[in-house]
Design brief:
Layout lengths: L3 H20 L4 H6 L4 E8 L11 H7 L3 E7 L4 E7 L13 H18 L3 E7 L3 E8 L2 H13 L9 H11 L5 E5 L8 H10 L1 E8 L11 E5 L6 E5 L3 H24 L3 E6 L4 H16 L1
Length: 292
Amino acid sequence: MIPKEVLKKIRRIQINTSRMVTDVFAGQYQSVFKGQGMEFDEVRQYQPGDEIRSIDWNVTARMGHPYVKKFTEERELTVMILLDMSGSSYFGTVNNLKAQLAAEISSVLAFSAIKNNDKVGLIAFTDRIEKFIPSRKGVQHVLRVVREALYFKPEGKGTDIPKAIEYLNRVIKRKAVVFIISDFYAPDLKKSLSVSNKRHDIIAITITDPKEINLPNIGIVKFDDSEGGKSYFIDTSSKSVRKKFSDDALLKFSQRKKLLSSVSIDSIDVRTDSSYTKELVMFFKMRERRMR
């Protein structure tokens, strides 16, 4: 049985995200993602006016007279959320942990999908596949996705995005809209991202805390590597130490941006100290402009 406080939080997120989907993303989700492809419907006899390039030559040869392939616009999408639950996601110094913010963003995307009669599923991962929820429709199904995104306790601490993508490609056979929520700080990403983005429409969502960029001047501080398990001390009172920390962080962000751009993956950069609504709206508007 789910505890009352858990149900209460899920209900609050449902109300907040449903309102956001209705007020902020009304029409944008549909215009951005609907009608992206065509799917095969049937083969029928050639009729005057049909395009020559639509002729199915194999069937034509077998039947002795021309047949054409008929396609219909894909109206139902599969939306998959790949949620990074590695140790680095359980960090936050402002309003929420990065993991909590990721769960809330997952909720917005899930409710957007079912509002447009699409299917939505979840793959939670660390250095292993932690949880797979097959894509389905319906409010009850989405509430399950939200619950797992919020309260699932992973076993792993590390990050293996290629393994998560490989699993995605194995269980999702048709083209899907895939949101990967992660910091993308993992080796050997380019090949797996590039190959999968040719098959699916992949969007990267990154979440950053301000303290990951700028260290506060608070003296000697012990830091724990949440994924590697090591601990070390940093003298934050040193100006040169703070500058190097900031420079290294900005370099990592720049390299991440270049990586995603090099494989033609759109990215949404979210921060824990500001509203993610603005970033999501900007993404949808950018996609709308590109499709005109």
